[in-house]
Amino acid sequence: MRHGKLRFVAGALAPALVLHALFVLSPYAQAFYLSLTDWTGVAGGAHFVGLGNYARLGEDALFLDALRNNAVMLIVVPTVTIAIGLFLASVLHLGGRRGLDGVRGTAFYKVVYFFPQLLSLAIVAVLWQFVYNPTNGLLNGSLRGIGLGGLAHSWLAEPHLALAAVMAVIVWSSVGFYMVLFSAAMDAIPRELYEAALIDGAGAWATFRKVTLPLVRDNVRVAFVYLGIAALDGFAIVQIMTVGPGGPDGATEVIGLSLYRNAFTYGKFGYASAMGVTLFFLTLAVALLALRGRRTERLEIA
Amino acid sequence: MVQIPTTKYGTPRRAVLGAALAGVAAPALVGCVTSGGDSGNGTATGAKTAENPLGVVPDAPLEVVVFKGGYGDDYAKNAEAQYAQKYPKAKIDHKGIQRVGEALQPRFVADTPPDVVDNSGAGRLDLPTLAAASKLSDLTELLDAPAWDNSAAKVRDTLLPGVIEDGTLAGKVVTLNLTYTVWGLWYSRPLFDKHGWAYPKNWTEMLALCDQIKRAGIAPWTYQGKYPEYLNDPLLTMAAKTGGTDLLKAVDNLEPNAWKSDALIGAASAIAELAGKGYIMPGSEALSHTESQAAWCQGKAAFIPCGSWLESEQKGVVPAGFDMVMGTVPALTAGDKMAGTAVQAASSESYLVPAKAKNSAGGLEYLRILFSKASAKAFAEANATLPAIAGATDGLTLTSGLSSVRDAVAGAGKEAFSFRFRSWYAPLAKAVDDATGELANKRITPQAWAERIQKAADAVAKDSSVTKYQR
Amino acid sequence: MRRVSLHGVMVAWAIVTAFPLVWALMSSVKSDAEILASPWSPPSSIRLENWARAWNAADIGRYFLNSLIVVGGALVLTMALGSLVAYTLARYEFPGNRLVYYTFVASMFFPVFLALVPLFFIVQKMGLLGTYPGLILVYTAYAMPFTVFFLHSFFRTLPSAVAEAAFLDGCSHLRVFARVMLPMARSGLVSVGIFNFLGLWNQYLLPLVLNPDPDRYVLAQGLAALSVSQGYRSDWSGLFAGLVIAMLPVLFAYVAFQRHLRAGLTAGAVR
Hints:
The complex is a heterotrimer.
Chain A: H1 5-34, H2 52-57, H3 61-94, H4 106-114, H5 121-132, H6 138-145, H7 159-187, H8 191-199, H9 204-233, H10 235-241, H11 255-265, H12 269-291
Helix pairs in contact in A: 3-7, 3-9, 3-11, 4-7, 5-10, 7-9, 9-12, 11-12
Chain B: H1 12-24, E1 62-67, H2 74-86, E2 92-97, H3 100-109, E3 116-119, H4 127-132, H5 140-144, E4 146-147, E5 150-154, H6 163-166, E6 168-169, E7 172-173, E8 176-188, H7 189-195, H8 203-215, E9 219-221, H9 229-252, H10 262-276, H11 289-297, E10 301-307, H12 310-313, E11 324-327, E12 343-352, H13 360-370, H14 373-383, H15 400-412, E13 416-417, H16 421-424, H17 426-440, H18 446-462
Parallel strand pairs in B: 1-2, 1-3, 9-10, 12-13
Antiparallel strand pairs in B: 3-12, 4-5, 6-7, 8-10, 8-11, 8-12
Chain C: H1 2-27, H2 32-37, H3 49-56, H4 60-91, H5 97-106, H6 112-125, H7 132-157, H8 161-168, H9 173-184, H10 186-201, H11 205-210, H12 219-233, H13 236-266
């Protein structure tokens, strides 16, 4: 029965591996190398500068702003998105009359909540720019409409609000997907568990903590990885939507934007590559942290 | 039996680590990008005659890449049509694109660039980087060739003052700019007439007028807050008028403490005062150029700082009878070294011929056509924009905006100046923009503004990896 | 009382998610003046000519077709190659299995900017610059890591019994894969297919560098061009019409396949 196994394996992997090595691995390998050079991005020659580019990162105030902002996003975006996603999924499942089934209109909500996921980030950013517009934007307009005009702000131009405004957009565009993901995971939880909890007189919060959460923990972890990657990126939204972009005064600068500016506007491709490599290892570290020990806690319910 | 694994592979953590190593150790096909040596430029050149002063090979194909922005690209196609008329055997490839830099950068690295490029718009190529890498042709030959529709004059003599200087980097003319941009303050003449407001001649008058405007229920100023560089223009114009040519040189040559001069701090204080007195429309700080300019067109604000492209940019949304005009930035002090009529002006829409163009003679010839008086005139008519060619607007009926721009240029005479640091040192420009944004929102003082920009300028001056230029 | 407030929250979130889309749709049939004067009010009359203008004058029609060709080709290739790789890695043990898997997975963490310029040279040297096959191959290469990652865990959760029975019946490896395992993985394939479709349809950076010829522009490039020229010509309504046109295929794809999508997620993928 083992006959032809290796041939099959080789045949199955070869085309994909060739594509991958050619179009993905080799460009990145070159980029790793370029991060050790002073290549401008247009000149033919590149001089080896060792770790000089990495040393300069530490003195680049804007890059440090970017690191700080990405760190804040890394904590806030996954936490808030997952919290809202879990809440919505729970309500869809257990918010109904008896505490055992979902609210009415579940099918409808599942479709509508997913909408933002369908849009490219560029479109999302353009739309939200109109929402945040201080003079005739939807947000300030609504606040004034309900008599809360005092809360109206110049959302993207005030340094202490701009990053929050950006994060809100990322959360908005991501919640739907994670709601669907968690909801799918909750579908797989045996109803008997909930019935038992109900009989024990457990409240909604206790049921969520004792029954739901442990059984969707794996999904939450994966969600952290995906959202962490998204939070470490943020380039498209920031570049299109924010003042400057990346402002005001670095308040919404992200690593991707610094990288882009150095590579394509300043002609410092080697330096930009060093930023990219840094970003790569940061993303990797996040993935490692979030996935740590996942195997031991894996639940075999599927 | 076929093996169907039931055990899990290693922990995902190890998975990811292993993956990282795989990524690093991947086939190191390095050197591809940076190995592009000199393979000769292979430029086709024919015999140079009076009819064909640049030695164009009649059947060599020509590739033109144009930034397709506010001016569209019809004007460029018209010039191509004339090229085709003269060289019917040449196959012309035209591309009108956006984000010229990202699209063309790899082609410059690979030494397979187009024959002529309009390097403009957001995301354009960084010229100093290209020049330092010897990727650009010297345009001297073109400048010394006879003009397309006036063989008695050389091309260099048909250009407005400053155009050749604008295109010069390290002593070499590498770009030729098609349009001539003047910066100033824009307003609606009928609106001012209706209220009996007169355009201010100096900053004291400006502040007094702003007070009047505000009492009339209109915001005196708005600006393109999302891109604070727009507000830099009036600020730097005022400073240049106060400090004169010496200040321009000090700033562009990165001299120590240039940004802390009285002229610059004075101009920054003027802008800060505007903000402090509430003369800037609330919310401006977050508006894009389109949004703030639209608000201004709707009469929500009286003044907006902008370059001379504003009229053509607003063509679609300006109400009838708005009749926008541009005024020169008022003088800040009585002791200014330049007259109040002086303007900040620079040519833009940079055309260049790559050094490794296959048909660089054709590229130069194309520019000779494009920079002819007839082409320029058609361009001015279609785009309500001043071309960089002298006399291009002669005999045309001009719109209110364009004629005010032309008057400003005439009024300034020789006192048309520009800063070069923006194109020479992009990181410094970014620092200035950020600082001005903070200044206009009252988050920093004029002194702090000057200090942080000076710090950025010093950093550039100290950075040995940046090619320095002098004026 | 509690249920009323829960309903309130659910409705509120539905409005928050749907409104910007409804608004984009609304703006696409308004006049420019209306959009600027009162961005949030309904149109005075339905101006479908905005759509026609975007489709014809802004060439959205042609870009749409280009996108369809490139994304369609890349999607078929990605699914075919990706499912093979994921299946092989998930269910066969052989030396180097892990290394191959990690090699794919790590690529999900690379910032794409870094690769752009080197990638250009590779594609150029192969003579594939600005061609449909070139774009399709590169799109496929960049969609592969996620596809493999997603389907790998999916194939691992599938029961072995059926496959073993098929092997006993003398089926070849390829046949077991194609006839037994693939059908069982259908919901996972549909899920990852949808994600790939969304990602590829909205892809912007790769075509920006690898697809320089405006005649071959894909939709994302066309929209960017429209949005840039819009910045100068203030054709807001045309821009919105273009955005909506670009949005529709993904919307239809989602609504048509959303049941499968959830089934695919339920069945244990993305773990």
